[in-house]
Structures are given as structure tokens and as C-alpha cells.
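idk why but the lab printer keeps eating my pages so im just putting this in chat instead. protein + uridine-diphosphate-N-acetylglucosamine:
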Amino acid sequence: MKLLIAASGTGGHLFPAIATAEQLSRHQTPCHIEWLGVPNRLETQLVPGKYPLHTIQVEGFQGKPGLGTLKTLARLLGSVVQVRSLLQKGNFQGVFTTGGYIAAPAILAARSLGLLTVLHESNALPGKVTRLLSPWCSVVAVGFEETIQRLPRAKAVHVGTPVRDAFRLAPSALPPLQLPIPDDVPLIVVVGGSQGAVAVNRLVRECAPAWFEAGFWIVHLTGDSDPDAKSLSHPQYLALPFYDNMAALFHRATLAISRSGAGTLTELAIAHLPAILIPYPFAAEDHQTVNAAAFVRAGAAKVFQQKDLTTEMLTTEVLDLMRSPQRTEMAEAAGRLAIADSAEQLAKLIQKTVGI
Ligand SMILES: CC(=O)N[C@H]1[C@@H](OP(=O)(O)OP(=O)(O)OC[C@H]2O[C@@H](n3ccc(=O)[nH]c3=O)[C@H](O)[C@@H]2O)O[C@H](CO)[C@@H](O)[C@@H]1O
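predcted complex ->
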């Protein structure tokens, strides 16, 4: 089988696609995979060397309809033509996409050629492209069970969201050379999605002295756009713009303070890690709040809106939670949400749908 994977932009779109691609490559009948992305996005760092990467320019529809919308529409049509030609020349049999802007030309081009298309939607509240184009897909795999009801015209199946291989293997210890953290200390990990979260970073730095005093250590993944990322220094504090070995870090951590992107939530569940969630307030249609609500309902996390959360509130909440048996219950609840074999399920679905 020859498959085009259209996944672009953030870790939330790319890591599940890469995990699925790796799973497909393990199949007895190997699957030839090529990638469709956008120039200058994360895929240009993660994909080359693994799969041939084709890039096109795409953008989303923003704001009120007007001249800008017409230009975007014209560009979308242009990109559909480009993807059609790629699919035809390359003799691809199907398309797999993890949604977002890149999914629109990929699904439309595949559909216009009668090719089979599998879409994975990791968010509880499906994005615009998913809502609009899911009825055109052969099958839509969803990360949250509740999403099925939000896509009444699609053939939707709940498979969870695939995670990187390291999350599915026995947990490895944190490499002491990368993160020298004593074995017996309580550890808070702060993560703002694949791009970091400047507002959360600021809040955490203000709360940190009280947490250090309580004996906690902090690993702070700041992202690379925080100008103050290096402003805090303490023996119990390690700040990094990005860290790869999230599986080892989440398995070692006692509590996470996190945005509520679907990728991170899935990993928190697999690592049985309780969390304080602060949804990104500017995420499209506030979808991170809907993701977080599913974890709160399950008892796996607590959620605070950024606009309501003060330094005092977060300081106390963390101190209380780190000392409370409620954390264990939250960890168990997180574990119940985990679908560890999501990549296998999704790879099988693609194989069945596209026909290898
Ligand atoms: C701002 C925004 O709109 N983000 C969206 C984006 O994901 P975004 O990439 O922001 O967030 P996710 O939580 O889905 O994924 C982040 C991924 O990056 C990894 N990571 C993060 C930091 C780090 O140092 N190292 C590392 O490996 C995390 O472990 C995770 O796998 O797409 C997701 C899937 O549609 C959405 O749910 C998110 O709401």
C-alpha cells in the first residue's frame, strides 16, 4: 500500500501521526508512506529522514467572510490541485490525516479521485475541518468517545489517540545527565503543549518559591518563545525549552501542571499522572476547555481558567494536592481513560479501510 499522511503544525497533530506511521511500518506487508506538510512547521524537523516530505502552503479561514476569505478559498483550491497531482503521480491508494488546515486539501483531493481517506480527530470538540469534511471521509477515528455524538454524519470509531512508542514500553528511568533529579523527591512537571505557554510559565515562576520550600522539585518545559524562560534559578528547578523523553518524565512525575491539548492529555492518562489543567484560552472554539472537562468528569484532573487563576490559588492548590490522598484517586482515574494500543487500533483501521 502507498499512503499519504497529511499532518502538520503542532506536536498535537504530528506525534499521533508519526506513532501511527511507525505502527503501519511494522505490518507484515510493509506500507510505503509519504508525508504532506507545510514549509517551516514542526514537520520539517520531525519527518525528513523518516518519510519523504512534500510541502504545500495552506492556511485556515479566520475572521468574518470578506476579501481575505476569497483569497484563502482560492489558495485552498490551488492546494487541492497540487495534492491531486501528487496523489495521481505517486499512485497513492489512500490518505490518512490528523486534521487541521492541511486536512482540507488532502481530504478534498483524495475524495475527488475516489481514494479512501481516514481522519483522526484527537480533540473532544472536533475542529472546523473535521466537522465540515468528516462525512466525506471513509472513516473517522476519534480520541474521545463523546466526539462520536458531535459527528452525527460521519462513520466514527473511538480508538483513543496514538502516543509515541516510549509511552507504550515499560517506563524507563529519567537519564540523570539530562535531568538530575533525586529518586525520592516529589516532582512537578509543567508543560504548555508543544509550543510552551508563556502565561502559565509566569504563574508557575511566581508560585515556585512556596513549592521549593515544601521540598518539591520542578521540571519546567517553557517552550522557546518565553523571554523570561531563564529568569528563575534554584537547585530544585530545571527549565528546558523542550524535552523529548516525555514518557520517562511523566512516569517519574508526581503532578503535572499543563495546558489541555489532546496529545498531552492522552499521555497523562497513559502515565497515570494527575494534573492541574489550564486550557489555552485562545485555542480554536475553546476546544481545550472541552478536552479538560472530560478529564475532570472522569476525576483525573482539576481545571482552572487562566483568567481566574491567581498565584495564591495555584500555590495552595498544588500544596494541597501534593499532600492529599486524592492524588492517588486522580492517578487511577487517569489510568482508566488510557487506551494504550491506540496506534495499533488506528493502524488496523487504516489497513482495513485502505485495503492492504
Ligand atoms: C495551542 C493549540 O491549539 N494546541 C492544539 C495542538 O496541540 P499542541 O501541540 O499545542 O498540544 P498537545 O498537548 O496536543 O501536544 C503536545 C505534544 O508535544 C509534546 N511535548 C511538549 C513539550 C515538550 O517539551 N516536549 C514534548 O514532547 C507533548 O508530550 C505532546 O505530545 O493540537 C492538538 C490536537 O489537535 C490540540 O488538542 C491542541 O489544543
